[in-house]
Amino acid sequence: MNGAESLIRTLVAGGVEVCFANPGTSEMHFVAALDEVEGMRSVLGLFEGVVSGAADGYARMAGKPAATLLHLGPGFSNAMANIHNARKGHVGMINIVGDHATYHMECDAPLASDIEGMAATVSQWVRTSPGPEHIAADAAQAVQIAAHDQIATLILPADASWGESPSGAAAAMDLAAPPRVSTESIERAAAMLRSGEPALVLVGGCEIDVELGLMLGQIGAASGARVCVETFPTRISRGAGTARLDRLPYLAETAIETLRPVRNLLLIGAPAPVSFFAYPGLPSMLPADDCRVLALAQPGHDIHHCVQGLLMQVGGADAAAPVHSLELPGLPAGKLTAVSLAQAVAHLLPERSIIVDDGATTTPPLYAATAGAAPHDWLTLTGGSIGFGLPCAIGAAVAKPDRKVVCVAGDGSAMYTIQALWTMAREELDITVVVCNNRKYNILAAEFSRTGARGGKPGPRARSMLEIGCPDMDFAALASGMGVRASRADSAEAFNEQFAEAMVTRGPRLIDAMVPAHSVM
Amino acid sequence: MNGAESLIRTLVAGGVEVCFANPGTSEMHFVAALDEVEGMRSVLGLFEGVVSGAADGYARMAGKPAATLLHLGPGFSNAMANIHNARKGHVGMINIVGDHATYHMECDAPLASDIEGMAATVSQWVRTSPGPEHIAADAAQAVQIAAHDQIATLILPADASWGESPSGAAAAMDLAAPPRVSTESIERAAAMLRSGEPALVLVGGCEIDVELGLMLGQIGAASGARVCVETFPTRISRGAGTARLDRLPYLAETAIETLRPVRNLLLIGAPAPVSFFAYPGLPSMLPADDCRVLALAQPGHDIHHCVQGLLMQVGGADAAAPVHSLELPGLPAGKLTAVSLAQAVAHLLPERSIIVDDGATTTPPLYAATAGAAPHDWLTLTGGSIGFGLPCAIGAAVAKPDRKVVCVAGDGSAMYTIQALWTMAREELDITVVVCNNRKYNILAAEFSRTGARGGKPGPRARSMLEIGCPDMDFAALASGMGVRASRADSAEAFNEQFAEAMVTRGPRLIDAMVPAHSVM
Asked: Which of A104, A470, B101, B163 could join A100 in a cystine, given CB atoms 3.0 to 4.6 angstroms apart?
């Protein structure tokens, strides 16, 4: 058995069943081994940002990591933006990066580069396997790291891949349970909530499923504390039957207003809230100066156990959490806007759908409109690097082939990783992509006005950096060029019809939704 | 004047006139300043790999660097693959990367990342400007680094950008001439060539223009040495009237054959030849064991001066360099193949065209067929990271708006940075893109056979990693989706007609050339 086979066997033994891949020459032995070892599904992406974004979406929905297969430093660097997003969302991932043979590295061949240096910027764990006999143990460790919601990058020199592996079989893996928060800490947090001063519980750094949401709702009801989820939760169950939980606003000004009355801020998995960007005259830290902040749990902790303990301590076991009932907006008519699009999606969304949100300024109305929609999961952009949505939808659909995936993306966002459409078509994934085509980097138009330059009105050169019409992109043509059925919607009625049809049909589908840019400030 | 204005003024004073950009919030003050300062053209890309590849192509053709404008770590990482290519080709570039305000960095906001760590892997020079008063001096140094064909990355915290710059005006720049090779070294090299033993001169690491090529041809004629250009020259003048120079073969086996008889290897700008990848049983270093290797000049040296000196020393001033006469292949008929496509391009290529080669297995016949075509420049993939071609063509066309740019790309290569088509349309660039659509990663099919796995025949899972049909990509649809006129050619006649029309029409154009994959081993 060679090193590449030893690697795949170890991954499969560790429960890693899917590899999103864009291989090259240095990974050919890994590719060859795919047919020698059972149990690994390999999904090709035409660009590495698709590969890493898909691994992110897969792990969020499967609850366990996928592997990526990347070609040397340039392949890894193409994947880095979506690895960054996964890291910020505490999503586990195992990156396998081929490198030159160990003895070839000193030659500085054209594709030689500092892969370890690159990997260190976005990974919690980086290792170069020095030879085939090390691969099983190294891969086992990578699986453990990723199982704890971290990024593991294993660099695989070509000779480690093609050489004979004497150990061969997978090394034993110890997938320890996540650490628990101490009872004392939970008691301290409960005392804080019981103090009577205005309190807010901010939750994040983990999947917020129905059960966790309901417990949080009970804690709020029993203690009087306001309960918020972080601005960009990795995965949150929403819709009818889920707890009514606020979401911390994105805009610093609005978040500061939310936090102004709060005297006790309890953090469960979420970091202390900071402004997404800095602005002259606005603070970076958003809680009020006189707010006490208690970090009860970190990402990676057993958050369910922690919240359950807190619920007991605040005596909320019998409290009634405020819950969303099924409340569907009517089907809209007339102009297609971010609001009418949101109404249509909320109205038509099938039960157990997965919404992937890479919509920047166009999706806040959708988040609001779907609060009482059919039960669904919502995945957000956790690291701020747009271009995550279409790839993430691939991974979600691979993890949950029986659930409809709806990816709502801005036109700007969609273009970073538009190659994802091809993988959707190849794998016949049940994804409906809605591109909100407003022909602007609309978020930047808003941010420009904050600079105060030229009275907030961009000059012609600046405007050409913010507007992405001219030429206008035709996403239906782009989709059909990659084998995805597509249509354009210019009115609410057209969108209703196209989206309704997409929801009752399996397979990849794109709707080019002509939505005017709206003011977001 | 704020820091952003100070930066742009300094760049313009240093001769940097073009900025390829994909900005975000942290770069908004730079964007605003574009309208306050005269002299900087800003060209938007919808993906950062387009931005950095365009800066590469611009510098190759303009003979001076462009700037890029990138959004924090994720924006930089998206640009890294094409920065890698530029670095390997010794092409200067100034990357301006916005970052959070200095005081905001400790907050670990979603977009915070280790930009310096990323930048260090692909840059010779990295600096974070600590405040607006440092920007002019830092930018001036970045210009100097890039003027010496290196990668300079200047990280610009938002508060350095928006803060008042007391220095304001551009700092003085000392753009020193490149260092010269000593007369003694040149004499030693000439003695080596005069020794009578079989010699080969390998040239690279610089632009090989007509004059340099002719001097090299004279050196070969006078000394009896064989003269080769490196496998992937950054820029080389070719066609009628240029010297007949060999190109070191890509395949290690073939290059080893070329080098086997050589006893004296003289390196001028080029590194000692190594195998592109390592293979079991093949050496990494390609010269024969008993070959003496003399490195006369490094990239960054004054190569013209060095070659001129060598020419004098070998007494070749009056030697006749073997020169290509105008020899056009006939227009092909029948099947469209890599060979017939090459014949048509060579036949129809206008004088002073620029060919950008990201064609992997499809362009070797084109290189051969254009040897006696109308005089043109040829730009190659210097760092092995495919997806360089379309962006590079943008930069070349911006640098030389009066010259036709022909970009020949593989289908796999084109998909990495397909967003480049949009910028071509927006800027109305005179580029004809020929996509050789063979529905395979054909180079990988060849590399797979070398692994020896399964008798060189990939199993079904491996095959699905090598073949990129299913679904078949329609590049004409992709182009029209981004505003570029396009057509498909299924026969030599159709290609002749479409390419001929493209050569006499200005503006962006794409031909989806249905070329079957051919064996390359």
From this structure: A104
Contact A35 B454 (CB under 8 A): yes
Secondary structure of A126-176 as H, E, C letters? EEECCCHHHHHHHHHHHHHHHHCCCEEEEEEEHHHHHCECCCCCCCCCCCC
- What is the model's pLDDT at position B173? 74
**Sequence-separated contacts (24+) of A399-403 with Cβ below 8 Å:** A399/A18, A399/A57, A399/A58, A399/A59, A399/A60, A399/A61, A399/A62, A400/A61, A400/A62, A400/A354, A401/A429, A401/A430, A403/A352, A403/A353, A403/A354, A403/A430
- Interatomic CA distance for residues B31 and B21, integer angstroms: 9
Residues 6+ apart with CB under 8 A from B56: B82, B83, B85, B86, B89, B91, B93, B388, B391, B392, B395
Number of A to B CB contacts under 8 A, please give it. 314
Q: Give Cβ neighbours of residue A379 (< 8 Å, ≥ 6 apart).
A: A57, A60, A61, A234, A235, A354, A355, A356, A357, A392, A396
Residues B303, B212: contact at Cβ < 8 Å?
yes
Residue B349 makes CB contacts below 8 A (sequence gap 6+) with B239, B355, B370, B373, B374, B376, B406, B503
Binned at pLDDT 50, 70 and 90, residue A454 comes out as confident
Confidence of residue A140 (pLDDT cuts 50, 70, 90): very high
Q: Say yes or no for a CB contact (<8 Å) between A84 and B104.
A: no
Nearest-by-CA chain B residue for A276: B109
Closest-CA residue to A355 (of A339, A378, A381, A338): A378
Q: Give per-residue pLDDT as tens, A187-208.
A: 999 999 999 899 999 999 999 9
Nearest alpha carbon to residue A64 among A145, A2, A4: A145
Contact check, Cβ <8 Å, B117/A113: no
ipTM, 2 dp = 0.97
- Among all residues of chain A, which has the CA nearest to that of B159? A280
Q: What's the token pair of residue A203? A: 């939750």
pLDDT of the residue at A34? 94
Which of these ranges, A53-67, B29-43, B437-451, has the smallest mean pLDDT? B437-451
Instruction: Name the residue with tokens 């590469």.
Output: B56
User: Looking at residues A441-446, what average pLDDT do you find?
Assistant: 89
* Element counts in chain B: helices (H) and strands (E): 20, 19
Residue numbers in A near B98 (CB within 8 A): none
* Chain A residue closest in CA terms to B424: A471
Q: How far apart are CA B167 and CA B276, in angstroms?
A: 48
Mean pLDDT of chain A: 96
Q: What is the pLDDT of residues A280-301, one digit of tens each?
A: 999 999 999 999 999 999 999 9
What is the secondary structure of A389-434 as a DSSP string? Answer: HHHHHHHHHHH-TTS-EEEEEEHHHHHHTTTHHHHHHHTT--EEEE
**Residue in B105, B277, B433 to test binding to A, most A beta-carbons within 10 Å:** B277
Those residues whose C-beta lies under 8 Å from the C-beta of residue A116, and which sit 6 or more positions away, are: A126, A128, A155
Distance from CA of A470 to the nearest CA of B (A): 6
Q: Is B239 a residue whose pLDDT tops 90?
A: yes
Instruction: Give the per-residue pLDDT at B172.
Output: 66
> Average pLDDT, stretch B236-254?
97
Percent with pLDDT over 90 in chain A: 93
B514 closest CA partner among B440, B434, B438:
B438
Mean pLDDT of A353-370: 96
**Residues ≥6 apart with Cβ < 8 Å to B184:** none
Alpha carbon distance A8, A38 (integer Å): 9
pLDDT, tens digit, 9 for 90 and up, residues B191-212: 999 998 999 999 999 999 999 9
DSSP letters, B346-387, are HHHPPTTEEEEEE-GGGSHHHHHHTTTSSSEEEEE-SSS-SS
